[in-house]
Amino acid sequence: MNKSTRATFALNVSLYVKAERREEFIECILANQRATLSEEPLACSYVWGEDATEPLTFHFSESYVTREGFEAHTATAHFAAWEAFAATDPFTKDPEVRFFTIHVDPQLK
């Protein structure tokens, strides 16, 4: 399937992690990233990093071939592990999540 000829479903997330939970957060998110990219055929990308000027603020960008790809992601064991971690109050404020559709001109390579 040529993914560039379709719109892809994407999200950007900002997370604000408590200092004492940083290492546990990174372990959890690395496991989620690895499993998403290696086990989910509809996952296109999953990248994350820590903010360059605000320590303990992390930004994510994920994309999936379709919205159904994202919904399949939320049904996986690794996403359930993420949800379990998130339920333990590891954040200093609520996550910010933005969903959007990526459109790529099929003539571009």
Walk me through what this model shows.
By secondary structure, this protein is α+β, with helices and mostly antiparallel strands. It has one domain: Alpha-Beta Plaits (2-Layer Sandwich). Helices cover 32% and strands 35% of the residues. It is built from 3 helices and 4 strands, in the order βαββααβ. Strands 2-3-1-4 form a 4-stranded antiparallel sheet. The longest helix is centred in the N-terminal third of the chain and has 18 residues. It starts with 7 loop residues before the first strand and ends in a 7-residue tail after the last strand. 14% of the residues are buried.
User: In DSSP terms, counting alpha (H) and pi (I) runs of 4 or more, how many helices?
Assistant: 3
Report the major sheet.
Answer: 4 strands, antiparallel
Fraction of residues in H or I helices: 25-40%
> From the alpha-carbon coordinates, what is the Rg to the nearest angstrom?
15 Å
Average pLDDT for all residues: 93
Shape: globular
Secondary-structure element string: EHEEHHE
User: What is the level-2 CATH architecture name?
Assistant: 2-Layer Sandwich
How many strands?
4
Distance between the termini: 14 Å
Structural class: alpha+beta
Structural domain count: 1
- Please state how the strands of the largest beta sheet are arranged side by side: 2-3-1-4
Topology-level CATH name: Alpha-Beta Plaits
The share of residues in extended strands comes to 25-35%
Poorly predicted ranges = none
Quick one: CATH class?
Alpha Beta
Brief synopsis:
32% of the residues lie in helices and 35% in strands. By secondary structure, the protein is an alpha+beta fold.
